[in-house]
Write a structure and sequence with these properties.
heterodimer; A: 364 residues; alpha/beta; Rossmann fold; 4-stranded parallel sheet; 14 helices; 8 strands; B: 437 residues; 54% helix; globular
């Protein structure tokens, strides 16, 4: 049982509208400047793995499209997004790119749709200039619906983003150093509430979690999770049962987006750009493989992890392409690896459980 | 670059390649086929195309160490490489060749054994299979000095080239083309222009040659003329009967993909266009009885080219247009040597796969009307998500708006293990019936 259970998302969103007059935006994975939305009194509600059955989306998508995209479209088609005032599609991969176009061009929804292109291979000056221009372009377009963006408000929200990043970093560091008393399941349950909580609610939650979790972690072997998101979520409880601590992660939905540094620029757009370019190596921005390999190896060194579990979402090309080189590099350092290729919301099969148990046994 | 290797390269170019071409002509003469009851006379240009591509792959073996070698994605602005005299190899074209020669599954399996999942693009798996095993039906591919990719066709090529870059420890230059969710923006164009400016010093360093803008402009002119002719080649299929089929076009597009910006491509398309115009004037069709005219959507199913060609011809159906072949002609009007960087930015970022689905819908409507299309065959290709995601909606909307019947074939571009003959035939039989009715 988590000490900090999530509030029902729907109730929370209704409150946000009723009490704060906030506009709600459904945001597809993964990278986007949430601070701009906050500054316009809008709340980004991320759509990663909604707990729904897929039926309607199959009329639009081939069977070889990943379940993140399939579930996201299903959510739209089933009308669960009716409470939302619009959608934002960051340019994460080919499938999300085309999903954005299906929703915008073909479904005839009476909702505003925004697209955010973040530059790839961000190791050039041109990428930085473009990123800042894209941020301003997004703000301007959102302004047509929400009213103009107040720069001082954006500064304030960038500070909130910094505060979240700072607490999350502390939580990750404590966990890595075995100084966090929290189960794997609880840790991710808390961290992932940031996918829809407003910073005014998320920051106190993180602070309370941090305060309540200081202390020596239980002894046990440590692992790293890599992939898109911790899936199936049951793997976290299983690792808890087996006495295995997730010491670090390289998950797109978690540390790759959260462990960022905003720098000291006085211009809030520059701070946001700094945060994007300071992100850990990530497939969504085409980071070179050697950077990602080095990053994961360093995590393993720092945390003393004995193995890495890749929780792949089936058909996720960006992640699947990196796996062979990561596995080779980790094995060469004597680390155990387990690659699990699963659909979302399918739970933990007996076979999967056996594989995890065998992996833990081998590691210990 | 080494002098002995350069000397060997030119020896092979001037002596070895012509000798090989002579030999292949002799071999070809021995393998004459019986005339088909369904097809018109074959294109005379087929032989010339074979010579050009064989020579290209033959010479590539000797380019390593003699010239800077670049592996390039099919949508990348190769014109920027030509002033530096890169020998360019197109892994996607090579993948298509492996698919057509039905060796893709075994090459894919090499990559799969190294951990590359079977769900990944089969062009990439073939290429990684070649990288690990050195096996290829063309003898040998030269190891590149540079990988040059553009994500205007998909993000997959970047993941794939990143892997190659890591394995071989060679530089990768990415030309990043923001996706046109709506209209292209001024900031997108300036971003792409800056990228050209940034990559020039790197290309100079890798190639050891200085960039000369006038040479770049000449190459753009050549590429523009070739792309224009390629468009004219495709436009001959508006004739009734069409003088070639899309299966011919799938083969004859190789020079515009792989040799763009080189005189050989321009010369070739002049010859091909003359032949096609002559056939159209004389009423010579690619198939003898063209009763229905079809459009193809997506990349070819390379291992089924001959089978599909025969099957459709037997039913008196000819593919007269395709979104795929059109892609190398569609943005020609943006090419302008007077504004080289801006025009290259537009030319390469406004291609079909970097545009929203509404744009694709309008393009397909235009092609259907211009080529008087009766039906549409949609290849849902596991390997190509940007081409395939949205096809179910396109099918429905085209039927609603234009009443064009269509069929979806679930397959893959090169990996025949992802293709079910039974399922495809069932769907095609229903499609044939619908069209006949």
């Amino acid at each position: 049982m988590s000490r900090f259970p999530p509030r029902p998302r729907k109730v929370y969103l209704q409150e946000q509208k009723a009490l704060h007059g906030r506009h709600l935006f459904g945001v597809f994975p993964a990278q986007y400047p949430k601070e701009i939305l906050w500054a316009m009194n809008a709340l980004p509600v991320e759509i990663w793995d909604p707990p729904i059955e897929v039926s309607h989306a199959n009329a639009h998508l081939q069977p070889y499209i990943c379940s993140v995209v399939r579930l996201g479209l299903e959510l739209v088609l089933q009308g669960h997004g009716d409470i939302l005032d619009g959608f934002l599609f960051p340019h994460t991969c080919d499938s999300i790119q085309n999903l954005a176009s299906i929703v915008y061009d073909y479904l005839g929804l009476e909702k505003r749709c925004y697209f955010f292109y973040h530059p790839k291979a961000p190791y050039r000056e041109s990428s930085r200039i473009y990123y800042v221009q894209e941020l301003k372009n997004l703000a301007e377009r959102l302004g047509e619906q929400l009213g103009p963006l107040d720069l001082s408000e954006l500064k304030r929200c960038v500070n909130q983003g910094q505060q979240i990043a700072s607490i999350v970093r502390e939580l990750y560091t404590m966990r890595s150093e075995s100084k966090l008393q929290a189960s794997n399941a609880e840790f991710y349950s808390v961290i992932r509430q940031g996918e829809y909580l407003h910073p005014e609610d998320f920051i106190p939650l993180l602070e309370a979690f941090l305060a309540a979790s200081r202390g020596r972690a239980e002894e046990g072997p440590a692992v790293i999770l890599s992939g898109v998101l911790p899936n199936p979520t049951e793997i976290l409880s299983l690792l808890d049962q087996l006495g295995v601590r997730v010491a670090e992660d390289d998950l797109l939905a978690c540390s790759r987006r959260l462990l960022v540094s905003y720098g000291n620029a006085s211009d809030p757009y520059e701070s946001l750009a700094e945060a994007y370019f300071a992100m850990p190596p990530c497939t969504t921005k085409d980071s070179p493989l050697e950077e990602r390999v080095g990053y994961v190896l360093e995590k393993a060194n720092r945390s003393g992890a004995k193995g890495v579990i890749f929780t792949m979402v089936k058909f996720c090309e960006p992640e699947l392409f990196d796996v062979p080189q990561l596995v080779d590099a980790l094995k060469a350092r004597g680390l155990a690896t387990l690659v699990m290729d699963t659909e979302l919301n399918q739970g933990m099969s007996g076979q999967m459980r056996t594989r995890v148990e065998a992996f833990v046994e081998m590691m210990t | 670059m080494s002098l002995p290797r350069l000397a060997r390269y030119y020896l092979m170019k001037d002596v070895g390649a012509p000798a090989l071409m002579g030999l292949s002509k002799v071999k070809k003469k021995k393998r004459r086929r019986e005339p088909s009851p369904y097809f018109g006379p074959p294109l005379r240009s087929n032989g010339r195309l074979r010579e050009i591509m064989t020579r290209h792959y033959f010479l590539s073996r000797y380019a390593e160490g003699a010239k800077p070698v670049a592996w390039v994605t099919s949508g990348a602005p190769v014109e920027i490489l030509r002033p530096f005299d890169f020998y360019t190899v197109y892994p996607e074209n090579h993948g298509a060749l492996c698919g057509a020669q039905k060796v893709a599954p075994e090459l894919c399996a090499v990559a799969e054994e190294r951990g590359y999942h079977q769900d990944l693009c089969s062009y990439a798996r073939i290429d990684l299979g070649v990288c690990f095993s050195g096996q290829t039906p063309v003898g040998r591919l030269p190891k590149p000095d540079l990988l040059f990719a553009s994500n205007n066709i998909c993000q997959t090529v970047v993941y794939w080239y990143k892997a190659l870059s890591h394995i071989w420890n060679i530089p990768l230059i990415l030309f990043d083309t923001p996706y046109n969710f709506e209209e292209i923006k001024a900031i997108d164009i300036s971003y792409m222009v800056r990228q050209f400016e940034e990559m020039i010093p790197e290309l100079e360093r890798i190639s050891g040659k200085r960039f000369v803008e006038e040479r770049f402009q000449e190459i753009i002119r050549l590429a523009k003329d070739s792309s224009f002719l390629w468009g004219e080649v495709l436009a001959t299929m508006k004739a009734h009967p069409a003088p070639m089929t899309i299966f011919d076009a799938f083969a004859h597009m190789a020079p515009i993909v792989s040799l763009r910006g080189l005189p050989v491509a321009l010369d070739y398309y002049r010859v091909l266009l003359d032949e096609l115009k002559e056939r159209a004037d004389r009423g010579i069709g690619a198939i003898k009885e063209e009763r229905k005219r079809l459009m193809w959507d997506n990349i070819a199913v390379w291992y089924k080219m001959r089978d599909f060609s025969n099957l459709f011809a037997e039913h008196g159906m000819n593919f007269v247009t395709a979104t795929y072949t059109d892609a190398w002609a569609q943005t020609t009007p943006y090419m302008d040597e007077e504004h080289p960087f801006e025009s290259m930015a537009k030319t390469y970022s406004l291609v079909i796969l970097n545009n929203n689905l509404n744009h694709r819908l309008k393009l397909m409507e235009c092609l259907i009307k211009a080529y008087q299309v009766d039906g549409l065959v949609i290849h849902s290709a596991r390997s190509c998500k940007p081409y395939s995601v949205g096809q179910y909606d396109l099918k429905r909307i085209l039927m609603d708006r234009l009443g064009v019947p269509s069929v979806i074939i679930e397959a893959d571009i090169t990996d025949s293990r992802a293709y079910s003959e039974e399922q495809a035939r069932t769907r095609l039989d229903a499609f044939f019936e619908a069209l006949a009715g």
